[in-house]
Every structure is written in C-alpha cells, then in structure tokens.
Amino acid sequence: MSDSEEERGKGERPWALILGASSGTGAAIANAVARKPGLDVFGVHRGRYVDNAALVERQVKEAGRRALLWQADASTPEAAEAGVQALREVAGPRSVKLFVHSIAGASVGRFLSEGEDRLHARRMRRTFDTMAHSFVYWAQALVAEDMLAPDARLLGLQNSLDETHLSNTALISASKAALEMYVRYLAMELGGKGHRVNLLKFGTVLTPALKHVYSPEALVRLEAAHARMNPAGRMCTVEEVANFVGVLTGDEAGWFNGATIDFTGGMTLRLLDLVLNP
C-alpha cells in the first residue's frame, strides 16, 4: 500500500476530537458519540483523572470504536499543534467530524479584592487561554493540518452566566463571552468550506470539577435550588447534554452555524419570580 492509499484508508473512519475527555461533560460526550453516530475518539486530558481517562478509553472501545486518550495541557497553541499532529498519525487527513471544546480552568475571585481571591493578570491570562483562546488554537491547527472532514462540526460549550451575575465568576463570564465571539467569527470563516461552528449552552450539571469546588452540603443546596429554578424540577444531566451533542453531528442539524444553542431547559426563567416571591 502506498503512503497516499494508507492516508485515504485512515480518513475513512470519522473521529471526534474532544478536549477535556477524561471526566464530566467531555467524558459523557466521548461515550455518547462513540455509540451514536459512531465516531472514533481522540480525547485530550490533563492527567488529573487518570483512572477516568482509562475508563473512557475502555468504554469507547467497548462501543466498537477506536480510542486514544492523549495527556497534555490543551490550553496552549503548542499543545494544539502537537495534538493535531498526533491525531493525524493515527486518523489521517480530513478525519475529524466533530471537535468539542470541553476544558475548564478558570480562576474565581474579584478584580478589586485585597485578599487571595484578587484576579491578577496571570490568572486572567490563564483563564482566557483555557476557556476561550484554546478553541481558536485547535481550530487553527485542525485547518493547518487539513484534518477537518467534510461537513465537520466544531462545538464550544457555554453556561448561563452570560444572563446573570454570580459574585466571583467574572472571568468565567468574560472568557465565555470571548468564546462566543470566536464561534461566530470562525463560523463565517469556515462556513464556506462546508463546516459548522456553534456554541452549546446548558445549565449546571454535576461533574467532578463541581464536586471539587463545593462541599457535599453545598451540593445538596445547589441541587435543591436548581429543582426550584428549572421547569422540569431537577438538574440537567451530563448524559442529556452528551446525547444532544450526538444530535448536533447529524445532517438534520446542518443549518446551525454561528449559533448559541439554548439547551438550558429554561433554567433562568424563574429567577425574578424566586427573588420576588421566595
């Protein structure tokens, strides 16, 4: 087999490239898209949840798909270039049907605080690299290496903090606002090539990261508050989000582009009512 024939053979099976694939939403998405629509998975993780990464890899393989979990800090342009090159070696060109940006790493605090929670410049740069800029770094690397499959879908993840104020989450809100702008502009640049770039907005879901931030008692209060807020009377699950990502890879979702897709289940509809009529 010639090199060109081998490259074409690699590209016949579509892949999902998922940043933050070892836990939480990213892990759920990896499992979901391996089953439907049936994508091989190249997952990037920082190594904080090594056992989880091994479990994700095993579950994807059990679904009959190939899986490769690659450990790196995905927030840098150097990591994006190296990661995409590593994927190209196993998948071949034009093989990435789905790219999901599911990494988090924001600093929480206040701009004018005099305490340890002061948002210094280093924290701001790190947050924006992780939560926003890295989406562009990986998109640039995918295009440079000719890795996007026909009708590829690029997806960022958004939360509801753009609609409200939560005292110490200014950097999260600001970086997600930047991510939304990146999605819109990349949608314009990639739309003519047949690709789609969108942002999926969903409410609070229970993840290892959330459990790391909140105490068990606080999590109980969090769930109770969301049960009051959400019209469905409960929190959304990572599985529901992940299954919907699978839907977004289908032909039926091909007209979404540059969109912020609301999958919050109406989470913020009752906020004013809850304040005025507690």
Describe the structure.
47% of the residues lie in helices and 16% in strands. α2 (24-35) crosses α9. The protein has one domain (3-276): 3-Layer(aba) Sandwich (Rossmann fold). It has helices at 3-10, 24-35, 50-62, 77-91, 121-144, 170-191, 208-213, 216-229, 238-248, 271-276, and strands spanning 15-19, 40-45, 67-71, 96-101, 148-158, 196-202, 260-263. α6 links the parallel β5 (148-158) and β6 (196-202). This is SDR family oxidoreductase.
Q: For the CA atoms, what is the radius of gyration?
A: 19 Å
Percent helix among the residues? 40-55%
Mean pLDDT value: 93
Poorly predicted regions are 1-9
In whole angstroms, how far apart are the ends?
A: 70 Å
Largest sheet: 7 strands, parallel
Number of domains: 1
- For the secondary structure, the number of strands is 7
Instruction: Predict the CATH topology.
Output: Rossmann fold
Structural class: alpha/beta
Number of helices, counting only DSSP H or I runs of 4 residues or more: 10
Pfam families: adh_short_C2 (PF13561)
Organism: Myxococcus llanfairpwllgwyngyllgogerychwyrndrobwllllantysiliogogogochensis
Keywords: Oxidoreductase
Family: Belongs to the short-chain dehydrogenases/reductases (SDR) family.
Provide tags for this entry.
globular, about 280 residues, alpha/beta, single chain, 7-stranded parallel beta sheet, 7 strands
Write the layout of secondary structure elements.
Elements: H1 3-10, E1 15-19, H2 24-35, E2 40-45, H3 50-62, E3 67-71, H4 77-91, E4 96-101, H5 121-144, E5 148-158, H6 170-191, E6 196-202, H7 208-213, H8 216-229, H9 238-248, E7 260-263, H10 271-276
Parallel strand pairs: 1-2, 1-4, 2-3, 4-5, 5-6, 6-7
Helix pairs in contact: 2-3, 2-9, 4-5, 5-6
